[in-house]
Amino acid sequence: MTASATSTGATSKQAPLPARRDALGSARVTTRRRHLSDRRGALASTVLYVVLIVATVLSLLPAFWVMVSSFKTAAQINTGEGFWPTPLTVQGYIDAFTQIHLQEYIFNSLLYAIGGTIGALVVAFLAAYPLARFDFRGKAFLNVTFALALAVPLVGLATPVFFIVRELGLFDSKIGLVILYAALQFPFTFVVLRSFLQSIPPELEEAAMMDGAGYFTILGRVVLPLSRPAIATVSVVAFVQIWNEFFFANLLTVSAENQSVQLALAAFKSQFGFNITGALAGATIVMLVPIILFLVLQRQVIEGLTAGAVKS
Amino acid sequence: MRFSAFLSVAPAAILFGTFFAVPLVVLIATSFTSWSGRSLEIVGFENYQRMITDPVFAKALGNTLFYLAIGVFVQVPLGVGVGIVLALKLRGWKTFRTLLFIPFVISGAAYALIFSMFYNPRSGLLNSILASIRISGRDWLFDSETARWAVAGTFAFILGFVMIVIMAEIASIPRELYEAARVDGASELQQQFLITLPLLRNAIGTCVLIRVLADIGMFDLVFILTAGGPDDATVSLALYAYRAYLQGDWGYANAVGTVIIGVGAILIILVRRLFRIGDR
């Protein structure tokens, strides 16, 4: 199973076969037999394309329509006439920052996503290394317990988590949410990092040990640099998940100054009458953050998610 | 070395203990109490008895299982289908993969906003599309006949995650298997059904598991889109527990929370058995 996780990256990087590339460019009969979809038959590939197009429209149309609508005037949005903006306006985007103050929520969400990701990474990396490398009593227990957390629907724990956060004096505070998000992202980060660490050979660490390097020196100087690809992968996933998280942000904050972009989005919905263009522009910006991250770091996101899915 | 390793696991143990282990113990223990966060009184199984007799709980359980069924029987099969098609690497497959994955990285709150517009009876896109083919629309989200379906429609077509898991798994199938089948005269379609599909058992099982886990705790969409209405037609277990929490009825909220985690655990074990996850 582990092999499949890493092979996604390999497939996406795979260059198309040279023969196939020729076939794409020319319609000459000589290259025909090499072309996969030709052999499959024109009818079959037409059917497959129709399937793909229908699936894409079904899953993307509503979000795309809302993004397009963020450039419409309030009057056009409210009448629902026409798919494209006539006239086109960026008033919504101006309102999102000057009236809704989206930048304040973006700042909070960035803080939660970056802080929570770093927290989860540090804690998970420190724990993953000994649990991947050494044998000691309680190791199997810890490995299983940490991984089992992935099988718990966290919303079930709402009240006890609220209670604990309140008793720790962390309710409705930025640091409280950063710590909570570090905790929530810990199991996934741990599972992926641990199985990555198991896959790297221990020789380098042994050599460093011979040279008299201590545990934390080895961890920081040898293991950490080797783990960069896995760290990159889990970081993107953790960042996006925290950026998108709603339930605990809603549970654990009340004041506007601590609210995340997702809470702002939920509030827009009830304030439709008040500034719909600003709300749609805001929603578009909030959606675009993970979308752009995904487009830029596609390979890491896909690897991270499949690795997590397969290993848990 | 030993001490360092211990030191190195300690932060994880503390974080895990504080936010997973202790809450889980508190959750189950207080589900047998009447608790408001301050005063606490042991009431035995009273919360659970009350749950069984509350018709809203029955609705919440039914709706949650409905959402879960849409996830498992609509989203997963469609995702598997799209994953198999994309793994054939038709021209432009990467573009489709990117486009189909985008909805997966959009948050539940954004989805709620998108669909509250999409379903809007006056200005929504759905009704204008239907009007153009002369079908009269409705107020999908606030008509108790259609509300559940409208909520399910928001996530049923988010295929990205299942798609990439399936594509990763197909990439790991040795090409020789297909070569051998082709030599034996198997058609493309036969190859997909006889080779690919059986080998995807584990990956499909994993997708079902993840769906079960996500849908058993369905909250964001329902809370923001409909707040559980109309007439509790869309309420989920998590939202039902949240309402009890808001009323300071924490013992009862935790009994519902225990049921969410318990039903989740049972379903996870069932799915693992069914798909024989773990053994190949």
Task: Explain briefly what this protein structure is.
The complex is a heterodimer of chains A (312) and B (280). With 312 residues, chain A is mainly α. Helix content of chain A is 76%, strand content 0%.
Number of strands of chain A: 0
CA radius of gyration of chain B: 23 Å
N-to-C order of helices and strands of chain B: HEEHHHHHHHHHHHHH
Task: State the distance separating the first and last CA atoms of chain B.
Answer: 38 Å
Largest sheet entry of chain A: none
Major sheet of chain B: order of its strands?
Answer: 1-2
The global form of chain A is: globular
Task: Give helix % range of chain A.
Answer: over 70%
Largest sheet of chain B at a glance? 2 strands, antiparallel
Shape descriptor of chain B: globular
- Poorly predicted segments of chain B: none
Q: Could you tell me the strand content of chain B as a percent range?
A: under 5%
Q: Average pLDDT of chain A, to the nearest integer? A: 84
Q: Report the structural category of chain B.
A: mainly alpha
